[in-house]
Sequence to fold (567 residues):
Amino acid sequence: MMRLTLAYLFLLTSLLAYSQKEKVELSISPDAFEIGEVFTITVTSTVQGALEIENLPSSYVQDYSISQGSTREVDYNSGVVTTLYYTSYSGIITKSGDYTIGPAWVKAGNKSYGSNKVDVKVSKKVSMNSGNVTAQQLNDPAFGVIECNKREIYEGEPLLLSAKIYSYYDPSHISSYQSYHINGTIIKNPIGNSNNIKVTDERFKGKQLKAFSYDKNVIFPDVVGNFQIDPFKLNLHQGYKSFPITSSGLVVKVKPLPANPPKDFIGGVGSFNVERLIDDTAIVQGEVFKLILTVEGTGNLQNLEVPDLILPKGFVVYGDPTVTENFVITANGADGSVDYEYNIQATNFGNHSIPGTSISYFDPEKEKYIRVLSDEVEISIEKDKKFQEQLDKQHKQIETEMIVHNADIRNKVERIEHGTLFGTVGYWSGVGLPVAAAMFFLFFARTKKRNEEEVRVKAEQKNRKGELENALKELDTIDSSDTSAFFSKIEQNLQLMMSLLDHDQEIKHYSKSEIVERISHEGGNADRIKEILQLSENLRYGFGVGESMDTEAIRKDTIDVIRSIVR
Fold:
C-alpha cells in the first residue's frame, strides 16, 4: 500500500512538472534614462537554451558585463521545484527616443519560447553646471561639487541635481555616502542608474582628472527665491586607502511665474498638449457618458490642476473626474500623460456640438503662457419619452409653484394710498418677480442635486463593480502558496463587496461579524465565509492555517459567494 501511494505521488509530481507552462520574462532597469547612461537587460526563464533578444536599437552598445545564474523556487502545495535561469546584460543607447525592446526568445531543442516586450524612454543628455569650487578643493587629492541643469528656474519647473566627484587618482569605490540635503518636504526622484559608478577622464578648471556622477535626482522646488542645497559627504577609496570628501553647497534661484495667468491655466510648467475622447457619441436622453481629457507632455504633470469643461446647455458634469497618471520621471521632469475621466449626463435630445476644451500652461523656454485646444465633437442624443415627460413635469411643477406663490402675494389685503407706487402693477412686479425667480432657482438647485446624487451613485457603483471584478480575477490567479498574500486578497475582496452593497463612496473597514451577518442576510453561505475569515485571523495572529488546508476550495467558495451576492 505504501509503495502504491509513493508511486502515485511520484507520478502526480512528474505530471505537474511536465504540464508546467514554460515561462520567459524580459525586464529592463531602469526603463527611463539618458543617452549614454548604463541600463540592464535581464531575461529570466524556466527553460535553459540559446538566448536571442529582438528589437534592440541599432544605437544599443553592449558592454562586457554579463551575469548568468540560476535559482530554485518551491511550490509547497504541489511540491514542484522550478529552476529559474537568468541572464543579465548591461549597455547604453546612444540615440534618444522611445523604444520597444523584445520579445526575448529562448531556444531549447526544436522549440522556442518567447517573452513579453518592454517600453523604454531614452532622453537627450542634459548639460549640467557645476557648483563653486575653492582653491583648497582643487589642491586636495579629490573633491566634490553639486551639479544642476540650471542656476535659475521658474516655480514648478523641474531641477536636475547630481553629485559630481573629481580625483587625481583612479578611484575603486566609495563608502559612507551622505546625500546632498534639501530643506523642506521636497521629494527626490532618482534618475537612471544614478548609483552606478562609471569613471571617465575629464578636464576641469585646466586640470586632467578622473570623474564620475552619482546620486542623480529630479526635484520640483515649491518655494520662490533662493533655494539652498547643502553639501554631500563620502569617502573615496583607492583600494584600502580613502580620502574624505565634503562637497560645496549650491544655491538656485526660483523665479515666480508671470502675473495674470489665463483663466484656463492648470498650473502646468513645461510643454504640453491636450486631447479629448468621448466614449459614445450616439446616446439616449438622460444617459451618462464618459469624457476623457488627456494632457500629455513633459514638465510637472504630477502637480496639474483639474481642467474645467465648457459644455452647452443640457449637459451636466456629475462629481469630480477620475484622475489616472501615466508618466515616468526623466531628467526633463515628468514625461507621459494624465487622464481626467468625467461623468456627464445629457438632458436635451437632438444633435449637439461640444466645443473643444482648452488648457494653458507656462513654457519656461519661451517664458510665456501657451494655450492649446482639443477638437470639437458632435454628439447625437436620441429622445427618451419617459425622461422627457419627467423633465416636463419638473418644469411644470416649477411654473405651478411660481403661480401659487404669486397668488399668495396678491391675496394679501393692504391699504393702498393713491399717488404712491405701493400696490401698483409695477410694485408687485418688482416684488413678486425676484421672489419667484428665487423659488425657481431653489427648486432647480434641489432637483439638480437629487439627480447629481443619483448619477454619482450609479457611476460609483459601476466603477466599484469593475474594481471588484478585477480583484476577483486577480484572486483567481494569485499564488496560494503565499498564504499571507492569499488571505489578504480574500479579505480585500470581501471588504470591496461590503462597500458595494452599502453604496459607500470610500472603502471602509468592516468587522468579521458584519461581513458574516451581511452575507447571511443576502442569502449567501455565511458559515463558509465565517470559516475562511477565521483561518485568515489565525494566520494573522501567528497560529498557522494547517498543512491540509484546501486553498483552491477556499478560493472557489469565496468567488462563488461574492458573485452570487453582487450580480
Summary: Helices lie at 2-19, 135-139, 385-410, 425-477, 483-501, 512-521, 526-540, 551-565.
